[in-house]
Amino acid sequence: MSKPRALVIGGSLGGLIAAHLLRSIGWDAVVYERNAKDLISRGAGLGTHQHLIDILRRVGIAFDDSMGVHVSKVLCLDRAGRVVLEKETVRVMSGWARLYRSLREALPAECYRLGHGLVRVEEAADGVTAVFADGTRARGDLLVGADGIRSTVRAQYLPEAQPVYAGYVAWRAMLDERDVPAVSKDAFECYTFCLPEGEQCLGYPVPGRDNDTAAGRRAYNIVWYRPTDPATTLVDLCTDAAGRQHGMAIPPPLIRPEIIAGIKATARATVAPQIAEIFARSEPFFQPIFDLESRQIAFGAPVPRVALLGDAAFVARPHIGAGVTKAALDAASLADALLAHGDDLAAALARYDREQTRFGRGLVELSREEGAYISAQLKPAHERRGAELPRDIHSLMAAHHSSRDQVRRLAAERE
Ligand SMILES: Cc1cc2nc3c(=O)[nH]c(=O)nc-3n(C[C@H](O)[C@H](O)[C@H](O)COP(=O)(O)OP(=O)(O)OC[C@H]3O[C@@H](n4cnc5c(N)ncnc54)[C@H](O)[C@@H]3O)c2cc1C
Q1: pLDDT number for residue 358
Q2: Is the pLDDT of residue 43 over 70?
Q3: Which of 120, 147, 201, 306 to mutate to test the pocket of ligand 1 (most atoms within 8 A of CB)?
Q4: N or C: which end of the chain has fewer CB within 10 A?
């Protein structure tokens, strides 16, 4: 008997983990990625959770020391660079490219197809077909939409579910360790917070170029959340030097030089010098922060054959560093449900939908609460309530610290 076939749309971390897990339960899974070029050059640091490490091990990817940089302290620095709070922690900071490379290399080459942008899904009683932009088609028993926050699959099945702008952007920067100034070298030992009024800036070491985790060859990653009015400032940030407006997300090379010079100057004026110096030597870019919730993540009739996964299903703000962990837990839940229910796709997808909509909703709520005080900066002070009110360093760090336990609790509550 031939194996059931899954068409996985989206070749980022969520799609790759799903393909591995489906193959591990006896499915034939093929990944279709819109980009024509390999995604390895996507550079971003990535916080990890134990669930992610466990799921990577389940698909045969050893999470050894080469996977990430260990940090054992969380610090909060004031504007002058003095330590105002210090706590012990155990964290492994990895990199998007590091995980991608391991997952991609472990998948047979014929199961990963670049240059396949899905435009439409077609269903029949006995199967599902993916129709791609170049006119080619692929047929399978199940289609997994792992195609990110602007998912084509979700747009077809749940067009009302739209990302909602959170009122702030994340400025991101990465610098090779060898280019980091002497004043900032100690930053490589810790996870560091700086808290300018109504903002949040964090920095941590990650694997460097060629995914190297050896001292001297790592990189430093900065994520700086700043309230940004969508009608004025964000429009300006997303307008290129030729005056062309790029919606809410401009490609990084098109950000105007004066915007870059301005944000570097603001870093020097508001953030601890150890972190500001790294930021000033990097090539920063920004990403707007969104919330996304779906009321349902499994679809299709008469037999459900379509499932959303990862950012295509729910997007939690990055404060809890759990986006990839959520994508991995979605994929594991889907594989476990398919294994438990055998040929009964309807029962498997109903279970998946029940487990992971609850989990996704919980994560969105948790991360929204963590970022509420940043969103609230765009409101008059007298209208701010609850988590929107200014937070002192201690409560903020305590909330951040406990968010890992909260993610674990939400994952456990699904069972
Ligand atoms: C500032 C910031 C910091 C973050 N920090 C962390 C962190 O520390 N830890 C963490 O776990 N997460 C973090 N995240 C979240 C994390 O990046 C996402 O949750 C994760 O990348 C989602 O993976 P995904 O595979 O679901 O979607 P994506 O990574 O968005 O991938 C979707 C893929 O689908 C492809 N695609 C799209 N449309 C189509 C189509 N029509 N046909 C075929 N292919 C298509 C895209 O090209 C892309 O490769 C952060 C996010 C931000 C914005």
Answers
A1: 96
A2: no
A3: 147
A4: N
Identify the pLDDT of residue 399.
Answer: 85
Helix axes 50-58, 13-24, angle to 10 degrees: 50
Query: Which helix (DSSP H) or strand (DSSP E) does residue 394 occupy?
Result: helix 393-413
Q: Are 326 and 363 in contact (CB under 8 A)?
A: yes
pLDDT 10s digits, 136-187: 999 999 999 999 999 999 999 999 999 999 999 999 999 999 999 998 988 9
CA distance 149 to 164: 11
* pLDDT score recorded for residue 401: 81
For residue 392, the model assigns a pLDDT of: 85
Contact 124, 300 (CB under 8 A): no
| Element housing 122 (H / E) | strand 118-124
C-beta of 198 in contact with ligand 1 (< 6 A)? no
Q: What is the pLDDT of residue 398?
A: 85
CA of 26 to the centre of ligand 1 (A): 26
In sequence order, which residues have a C-beta less than 8 Å from that of residue 75 and are 6 or more positions away? 83, 85, 86, 190, 191, 192, 193
**Element (H or E) spanning 168, and its range?**
strand 164-176
Among 27, 7, 98, CA closest to 56: 98
| Residue 1 reports pLDDT greater than 90 | no
Ligand 1 mean position to 330 CA, how many Å? 14
Is the CB of residue 68 below 6 angstroms from any atom belonging to ligand 1? no
E strand or H helix at 349: helix 345-375
Atom of ligand 1 nearest to the CA of 116: 43
Phi, psi of 394 (to 5 degrees): -65, -45
Q: Rounded to an integer, what distance in angstroms lies between the CA atom of residue 374 and that of residue 128?
A: 43
Query: In percent, how much of the chain has pLDDT > 90?
Result: 87
Min mean pLDDT across 116-130, 282-296, 379-393 is at 379-393
Whole-Å CA distances, 333 to 37, 96, 129, 351:
30, 22, 23, 9
Atom of ligand 1 lying closest to residue 327 CA: 26
With 0.85 as the threshold, say if the pTM is over it.
Answer: yes
CA 261 from chain centre, in angstroms, equals 27
Decide: 167 in ligand 1 pocket, CB within 6 A: no
Mean per-residue pLDDT of the chain: 95
